[in-house]
Design goal:
The structure holds two protein chains of two kinds. By secondary structure, chain A is α/β, with parallel strands linked by helices. In chain A, 46% of the residues lie in helices and 14% in strands. Chain A has helices at residues 15-48, 57-66, 68-93, 96-106, 149-165, 173-184, 204-210, 223-236, 271-284, 305-311, 313-317, 323-327, 331-338, and strands spanning 114-116, 192-196, 215-220, 241-244, 257-263, 285-295, 345-351, 358-365. In chain A, strand 7 (345-351) and strand 8 (358-365) form a beta hairpin. In chain A, helix 1 (15-48) packs antiparallel against helix 3 (68-93) and helix 3 crosses helix 5 (149-165). The longest helix of chain A has 34 residues, at 15-48. By secondary structure, chain B is mainly alpha-helical. Chain B has one domain (14-106). Chain B starts with 23 loop residues before the first helix and ends in a 12-residue tail after the last helix. Classes of the chains: A alpha/beta, B mainly alpha. The complex binds S-adenosylmethionine (SAM).
Chain lengths: 373, 113
Amino acid sequence: MARNVQHEMLTSPSSRIRARQRFVLALKSSGEQLRRQLVGSVDAHFSAAGKGAEGNFQQAVSKLYSEDEYRAVCLVKRAGQEMMWNAIEDAIDAELPRLRSLFEDAGKRDVGGSLNLRDDVSLPDEWTTARVHLQPGGYLRDDGDRDVVAGALYEEGGALYSRGQGVGTKESKAECIIRFLKEWKPDFQPRRILDIGCSAGASSVPYASAFPEAEVHAIDIGKGLLRYAHARAQSIGVPVHFHEMSAEQISFPDGSFDLVVSHNAMHEMSSSTQQAMFNESFRLLRRGGVCVHQDLPVKFAEMSPVRQADIMFDEWYNGELHWSDYAQTDCQAGLEVAGFDPAAIDCKPFPLLDKTMSWLLAAAEKTVADEMS
Amino acid sequence: MSKIPPPISKREDDGVRFFETPGLDMLYRTCLALAEELAVTQDRLDTLERVLSQRGQIDPEEVDRFEPDAHAENQKRIMAARLSEHVLAPIKDLVKQYEVRGPEAERGRPHER
Ligand SMILES: C[S@@+](CC[C@H](N)C(=O)[O-])C[C@H]1O[C@@H](n2cnc3c(N)ncnc32)[C@H](O)[C@@H]1O
């Protein structure tokens, strides 16, 4: 399943909106190049002045963020992000009735997936006001019981990038993890799979396709994301069961899964939520089951102070909530605390098929029996 | 880990102004909005030229000489107004904020607004 799979929940923007989207994509990508170039030279000057790896982070922040040139690239990055959402929101607004009715009819399709919303999920505090990546209304946006806008925004934001990269050229995150699993455990055939922090379900669906015998469950905290994810999966024709639940407290019995995964979710969680997710992964796995948590390879310890200061942009001005925590997290330790045997944990970068980048994986097998069970 | 505060403070509405010079952020944004409009126009023109030349119907001379009728003239006015609205939107925002928050002196350093 290619990363940019086509389905009916995607919009077909007017040529005017498409032209805006093309422009914004170009703006963001040239802005990003400028930014890399600039950070490279600031870094070089800073290191030459004897403030290299051991140099102080606060000093690097003051230096970098007081440069007019850097402020200009910050502005382009921020404005580009806002313009992108405007162009996407306009495309969605134009098709809202169609998207809503697709959602309403999703359950009637003979696919076998389900949507399970509830009102008793307790959320980490920061979420009510969060606007991760500046997405309008945030992940928790909920404009009524047929509202799918949060999911549509998330999916269209991603689709815009893949369109820019050419059709089907990149291995998706889920495809990459499925390949990792085949290499790690060639005979592994999971029967029950859980995807944590599923958003629009783009990474949940590939598991249902790759393991057609398995029952796939996916959880998130946003109602609008989950409604969209459900309609999307039903439209693609692959059964996934979506649930409104927090990673901190997952309402499934102990030992009820063979495979627990998450994709790009750790960096959007506080350290305590991430630990709770590791604990829940351990509890939910049967003996012999495995978890694989995949995310961006961002390690503060491996960066110069100027580069650390640069990536903080995303926490300060792009709505990331826990970027700096994530960049300093120790997944190995977290999985050990959760109860996994240190020898059965594998935390490492894993390269994409085309070797253009690596994902960070936090994987573990439950070799010991759960004390509780 | 405790959160590190941003080096350039954000405003109450979570917006941010990166430059200290009043109006510089606005000027950048104006340019970007203008560029977006230009991109859309170029794209449209390109499409039109391709469609028309496919049909063997394009005659640049005729385009130069074109006299809009009343309806077309009105459409063109609306288009121009839209463009100018878009380009001026950041300034409009500034003016709106001024209405709410009052003059410079009462608002502290410009980039902290
Ligand atoms: C970057 S998105 C994940 C993308 C998705 N897994 C994919 O591959 O397309 C992160 C998601 O984590 C969800 N999330 C954050 N905190 C959570 C929590 N405590 N429990 C469940 N989901 C959470 C957010 O709502 C968001 O949808």
